[in-house]
Specification:
The chain is built from 7 helices and 17 strands. By secondary structure, the chain is of the alpha+beta class. It has 2 domains: 115 residues, Clavaminate synthase-like (Double-stranded beta-helix), CATH 3.60.130.10; 162 residues, Double-stranded beta-helix. The strands form 4 sheets. Strands 1, 2, 3, 4, 5, 7, 15 and 17 form an 8-stranded mixed beta sheet that branches. It has a 4-stranded antiparallel beta sheet with strand order 6-16-8-14, covered by helices on one side. The two termini are 28 Å apart.
Length: 319
């Protein structure tokens, strides 16, 4: 879709990487959206799945029905596959006096339902998960641990559902320095060919998860899953949840993790409150840089992950 065919938002390449598209929703778009959804509570969209599509339609209407197609085309395009979505203004008047946190949930719900259908998040029991990062944490995964770098990975390695896309939204932060989002497109990984051509690239790996994820089964798939139509590699990998069953698998995963963390094409993205990253989960790896230690450090995030509509079924499918 050409820029002269869109309405209610602007489009620009990110300064650090042209693959990342910056979409800025205009103040009038946000204000019109807020007026249309003012009667919808967060509880109502949690309880009634069809209301989530209504909320999505309200946002799309404010852009003359151009935003949904633009986002979907961009996320599905392997050459891009990622959007940084932000808002021109988020003051009280623009938000029609909707609570800021509630607005964030409504906005990300609209975006997710314009590009597909979110999976149930077993950790939260909802179609989205909210979680906080603070100065101290005793969790069983790296997600909330502020003082270490969260390594590059994809989401959904340990669940049966397709995880075609991921939304990561910043809702609140206090006394925060550091913690940039890290991104790497699979095609920009300089040692991709080395690991893609290895005998272990298509080996079935066992994937599990810690108790906090509330997923009581294992999944089995290779790191490099079914290719794109033109044969381009797609990845499903996270170092923490891979459970190799032999030395060859273990060493392959170790060397892959080392290579990814040394990759110089990885770049950092700062998000302001109310903005979000929307990425194609199978051709972008993401992570997070470490935070500077501060007593009152607090960041609240919202995450959704799910499937394109054609893949949004409950039974397990081959990815």
């Amino acid at each position: 879709m050409k820029s002269n065919q869109i309405k209610g938002f602007s489009v620009n390449p990110h300064l650090k990487n042209n693959r990342l598209t910056v979409v800025t929703l205009s103040s009038s778009t946000i204000n019109g959206f807020c007026k249309k959804v003012a009667k919808q509570s967060v509880q109502s969209i949690e309880y009634k799945p069809f209301l989530r599509f209504h909320v999505a339609n309200c946002l799309n209407q404010e852009t003359n029905n151009t935003l949904g197609d633009f986002l979907l085309n961009t996320i599905k395009d392997r050459q891009t596959g990622a959007v940084l979505l932000q808002c021109e203004s988020l003051d009280s008047e623009t938000l029609n006096n909707i609570d800021f946190i509630d607005f964030n949930i409504l906005l990300s719900t609209a975006i997710s339902h314009l590009i597909g259908v979110p999976n149930l998040d077993s950790m939260s029991g909802k179609f989205y998960a909210r979680f906080s990062v603070k100065n101290e944490d005793n969790s069983d995964s790296y997600l909330r641990q502020a003082h270490r770098r969260m390594e590059l990975h994809t989401d959904g390695t340990y669940v049966k559902e397709h995880t075609d896309w991921v939304i990561m939204q910043k809702m609140l932060e206090i006394d925060v320095e550091g913690g940039e989002s890290l991104l790497l497109h699979v095609d920009d990984w300089q040692e991709l060919d080395k690991f893609y051509s290895d005998d272990q690239a298509k080996a079935e790996i066992q994937w599990g998860s810690p108790p906090s994820k509330n997923v009581g089964y294992k999944t089995y798939h290779p790191v490099f899953i079914k290719e794109e139509k033109q044969g381009e590699p797609r990845m499903s990998f996270i170092d923490q949840f891979a459970e190799p069953l032999n030395t060859d698998q273990g060493l392959y995963l170790y060397e892959m993790g080392e290579s990814l963390e040394a990759e110089t094409n990885t770049f950092g993205v700062e998000l302001c409150e109310g903005s979000m990253l929307i990425i194609n989960n199978y051709c972008w790896l993401h992570g997070r840089d470490k935070f500077i230690a501060r007593k009152n450090l607090h960041r609240e995030l919202l995450r959704q992950r799910g499937a394109f509509s054609e893949n949004a079924r409950f039974e397990q499918k081959s990815v």
